[in-house]
UniProtKB/TrEMBL annotation:
Residues 176-219 have a biased composition (Low complexity). Residues 174-223 are annotated as: Disordered. This is Uncharacterized protein. It comes from the Bacteria.
Amino acid sequence: MVALLIGGYAYSNHHATAKEYQAAMTNGRTALKNKDYTQAESYFQNALKRRLNDRTAQTYLTQTQRFVSGENAMDARKFGHAQARYQTVKTTKNGSTVLVNRATKRLKQVKVIRANVAQFKQLLSKAQDQNQALNYGTSNTTLDELFNNSKFQQVYYKNLYAQALALRKANNAGQTSVVTNSSSAATSTTGSGTTTSSSSATTGTTSNSSSNGASLTSSESAAAQNYQGSNEYTVTKKQKELNGKVITAGQISSARQTINAAGGQADAMSDQDVRVALQQANKKGLSLTKYTQQYLK
């Protein structure tokens, strides 16, 4: 009689545990469909308590945790890590088909995102090089290629977008600085010419002619206002050198011819702009012709 009671209790307990296990697994699968991954993990862990070392429950739990890890990596824009996690989820045997399908879609998405990241980084790097070469307008034109791409504003490219915004701000500040410096230089020159003219007026017609020649014409004043070169009044000795040697006037003249021949606008560049072009071309291991074609056109 006692044996029958014990046996009946054991059977009843086993049956109850089996039902609890099945309920936990069913609830876990439902939670996965609803994308409630935290709840799903809890159910699968509960199933493991009802049936220790159960391979199915463990597979579902591990697969869920890896998928969540992939999602977290996506949010952190660690796309390489996310791709690895999704790949593991996709190839899981005897696991959740729901997670397999989602991981497959995510893998396709990550592939596109990583390709976009490579493209966006290339354009951003090009714009940064143009900024360093003091070609602020050209740099902004390159940045426009990024900002005009609707995908660039997606959250996956948040860091690159912030860098592009900062670079555009720097370009705008650089352009403003150049115009201001050029305007100040033009004003100083005009003022000097006016003073000379006034002083010479008392000495005769010849002096007047000389002072008029020193002042700027209306077209020259306009050119000074629109001047896009860099300010040469604060150029250091090092900024005038290439490989430790001073860049000569002859080298600058020759470089201007090369830049014009390559499609650049050397006539609109100051001597220091030409020096910078020579320095940047040397730094990048490019001929001045190729450098002009890539960054100065």
